[in-house]
Write a structure and sequence with these properties.
- By secondary structure, the protein is mainly alpha-helical.
- 81% of the residues lie in helices and 0% in strands.
- Keywords: Membrane, Transmembrane, Transmembrane helix.
């Protein structure tokens, strides 16, 4: 199971209810990390591709 840890974190985040626990914050860390990290990843990839040409 490749995505088992992610699934566990998301399940824990949805079970906490109205009192957010560690799962809730872990979910938001993953979301914010993806939003910030994805553009950085694609910009570095594009720059690397240009350098190889």
């Amino acid at each position: 199971m490749l995505h088992q840890p992610l699934t566990t974190v998301l399940a824990a985040a949805s079970v906490t209810g109205s009192h957010p626990g560690p799962g809730f914050y872990a979910e938001w860390v993953l979301i914010v990390g993806a939003v910030v990290g994805a553009p950085v990843y694609f910009v570095r990839r594009a720059r690397g591709r240009r350098r190889r040409r």
